[in-house]
Amino acid sequence: MPEPILEALNLTRHFKIGGSLFAKPKVLRAVEDVSLSVRQGETLAIVGESGCGKSTLARMLMRLIEPTSGQMTFEGRQIDRAKGRALTELRRDMQFIFQDPFSSLNPRMTVGRLVGEPLETHAPEMSAKDRRAKVSELLAQVGLRPEHADRYPHEFSGGQRQRIGIARALASGPKLIIGDEPVSALDVSVQAQVINLLADLRDALGLTLVVIAHDLAVIRHMSDRVAVMYLGSVVEEGPTDEIFASPRHPYTRALLSAIPVAEHGRARHQIALTGEMPSPLDPPSGCRFHTRCPFAREACRADVPALRVTDTAPGHRAACHFFEEIAAEAPLPRATEGSGRTAAAQARFAMYADALAGGTLRPRETA
Ligand SMILES: Nc1ncnc2c1ncn2[C@@H]1O[C@H](COP(=O)(O)OP(=O)(O)OP(=O)(O)O)[C@@H](O)[C@H]1O
Ligand code: SF4
Ligand SMILES: [Mg+2]
């Protein structure tokens, strides 16, 4: 099994909100005690509802914001306090792809300058001629043409702009790329192309990917492992196939039960998630999911469940006191016709199925 390239241990980030002469600031617990490890060459997907802390976690992993506490290592080196040259090297080795390829690209810079800029920082010895050649090579790698270097971001489509963002991320020769919803702003047909591009680049360049995605279809198609977040914490993680086939945490079961039958090959009801996600300013005691969990009982309000290894596969862990009982007593029920499929989820999966059938999207290779 490949070595971990990036590891986080008990990573926590709190934000202080408000506060004045007369009132203490409140503490917003955006990420709480997250430990995870990303292995060389794999794609880890991070999924969860809006506001659960995905972007905050990704920004900490990139050292774009500081953790309140916890530790991180990259290739075995401690990076949570890295400064100076160590931080510059980290910026070269780990790159970020943003959700919105328009606002993340400076509109006044040509594509050539945008893609060439990281080379000025990370390869200052490179001559202007070599830099131009390298920019052409990077543009070709992401499916753009050398003459695109003279144009400006507004002259490109959304998918092309995301390709420019990817070329810029590749310029420093990174080992790991973190994408925060890298395709969610794009049309579904274009999403498939950009997903394929990222998968091809990962394989060709030996990259490791961490991808944040709302969309379970995207995750299913591109990740090797999934971490499911709820209200700042990882509640379940494991190999993608295991998570989709045998989710153990009631929250994951609820998320996945919205997937239409045809895609998954197994009929199931939608387990409705009732209520809003509670505020991270005042998270519930014990298991943070207890206010919405259909299986909650007294112990859930008192004790925080640890991430424990499940019965299904090595590396599959869930943070629920009772997942064994729940899996035995409440297997994912069979669906009756028409139950529990949101129109949006159904439409999205149909489009992915079409893309797969038409050969524009390749299925993820399973080991
Ligand atoms: N700089 C900040 N100051 C204060 N609160 C913040 C800050 N950044 C994030 N938060 C809060 O932290 C929580 C987690 O936010 P985050 O952006 O990480 O969520 P997310 O899972 O990425 O959501 P989305 O799917 O909507 O992008 C939210 O409650 C958010 O309001
Ligand atoms: S610990 Fe309790 S509340 Fe939390 S997910 Fe498990 S059953 Fe539900
Ligand atoms: Mg986010």
TrEMBL record:
InterPro entries reported in the protein's UniProt record: AAA+_ATPase (IPR003593), ABC_transp_ATP-bind (IPR050319), ABC_transporter-like_ATP-bd (IPR003439), ABC_transporter-like_CS (IPR017871), Oligopep_ABC_C (IPR013563), P-loop_NTPase (IPR027417)
GO biological process, one term: transmembrane transport
CDD domains: ABC_NikE_OppD_transporters
Top-level lineage group: Bacteria
SMART domains in UniProt: AAA
Location of the ABC transporter domain: 6-256
PANTHER family (alphabetical): D,D-DIPEPTIDE TRANSPORT ATP-BINDING PROTEIN DDPF-RELATED, TRANSPORT ATP-BINDING PROTEIN
Protein family per UniProt: Belongs to the ABC transporter superfamily.
NCBIfam families hit by this protein: oligo_HPY, PRK11308.1
Protein name: Peptide/nickel transport system ATP-binding protein
Species for this entry: Pseudoroseicyclus aestuarii
